[in-house]
Specification:
By secondary structure, this protein is α/β, with parallel strands linked by helices. The chain has 10 helices and 16 strands. Strand 15 and strand 16 form a beta hairpin. Helix 3 packs parallel to helix 4, helix 4 packs across helix 5 and helix 5 runs parallel beside helix 6. The longest helix is centred in the middle third of the chain and has 23 residues.
Length: 366
């Protein structure tokens, strides 16, 4: 099936374009799957950073949003979102402590922790705030990024409770769920369930009321079994990207975002150059994608070189390339970075730009 995004006529390139019908279908499908299996859905907004898309997710049944930074939380709070989880082991300096305290007074707030030292800073910052702040202990389920071992979760949770924080559960990120087949995703989901279950029990053994056991990413969502986990936090699913396509978690028809670029050079029959580069697509390379993105119109083509404002595409012998001055869609390897680089998303229907959505939390990286 062909990619649904129709390239618009007229706008300056490069630009990020969104098909709202595919976007809404992706949102509805994830919401229904979560609801049917008994999971609360708290999607990760770092993938889209857009209040208009957040509103669609919340209206479809999401309990709230996950974010990666205090800055993202502030941006979505200003846009009217009142239930936010900073799914990150927050380490507070004086400025971040003041900002987090103000945020805690305005919205229902959850914060991730993973160290006793971090918990003490958090407790000092939030002491006496108007609203109780909920805390989730991050555990490492196999991606070996941040998070404690499940047997250490009790130590961190107790420290949080001792400084007056409301410890409500545990969370993890299954980054090792990326792989070419469903077996990797299933293994990661089982790792999450086991690790989160052990960590949750460690907190319960200390008398803490574990209400939230939070996991899930776009690759592992379909592998979950109801039971130990009760909340999912996928993010990329709203748009999907070249990596999700390559590992089989979506089809071409599920791609809701692409960069539209103009062919600015055709130096050889098997090679052409686009006016899009790392300042639009990001520079992420994926072990599952050949090159710097996916070309729906030229699926056998490869973006072999990426500079700040150039993308060089090489085609197999015998494949006819585009005309000079024509437009070509490029689906990013990892959609989160291009969105963070953009001021707005162009909403396209029937080859016309029907709306422009501000990237509300653009650049909010602190």
């Amino acid at each position: 099936m062909a990619m649904a995004i129709p390239l618009p006529d007229g706008p300056a390139t490069p630009a990020l374009v969104v098909d709202p019908d595919v976007l809404d279908r992706n949102i509805a499908r994830m919401a229904e799957a979560s609801r049917a299996q008994g999971f609360a859905l708290r999607p990760h907004a770092k993938s889209h950073k857009c209040a208009r898309i957040a509103d669609r997710q919340l209206r479809a049944g999401a309990r709230g949003l996950s974010v990666a930074t205090i800055g993202e939380a502030e941006a979505f709070a200003r846009a009217g979102v009142d239930d936010l989880f900073i799914a990150y082991p927050v380490w507070l300096d004086a400025d971040k402590a003041r900002r987090l305290r103000r945020l805690a007074d305005d919205v229902a707030l959850r914060v991730g922790v993973e160290s006793v030292e971090g918990v003490r800073r958090l407790g000092d910052a939030l002491r006496g705030s108007d609203r109780a702040v909920e805390v989730l202990v991050e555990v490492d389920s196999g991606s070996h990024r941040t998070g404690v071992r499940p047997d250490v979760a009790g130590e961190v949770g107790k420290a949080a409770a001792d400084v007056g924080l409301d410890v409500v559960g545990v969370f993890t990120f299954p980054g090792h769920g990326y792989g070419h087949d469903a077996r990797a995703r299933e293994r990661a989901a089982r790792d999450e369930e086991r690790t989160l279950g052990e960590a949750a029990q460690a907190l319960r053994d200390l008398g803490l009321d574990v209400r939230v056991v939070s996991g899930g990413s776009t690759p592992t969502v379909g592998q979950w079994r109801p039971g130990a986990v009760n909340e999912l936090r996928p993010g990329v699913y709203v748009f999907n990207d070249a990596t999700q396509l390559a590992i089989g978690t979506c089809g071409v028809e599920d791609l809701a975002l692409a960069a539209v670029a103009t062919v600015i050079s055709v130096p050889a029959p098997e090679r052409f150059v686009l006016d899009v580069g790392s300042k639009v697509l990001g520079s992420d390379r994926s072990p599952w994608v050949t090159g710097h993105g996916y070309l729906p119109r030229f699926p056998e083509g490869t973006v072999t070189g990426l500079w700040e404002h150039h993308a060089v595409v090489r085609l197999p012998e015998g494949v006819r390339g585009p005309r000079l001055g024509s437009t070509v869609a490029v689906v990013p390897n990892h959609v989160c970075t291009p969105v963070n680089l953009a001021d707005e998303l162009l909403v396209v229907r029937d080859r016309e730009v029907v709306d422009r959505w501000q990237v509300t939390a653009r650049g909010t990286n602190t």
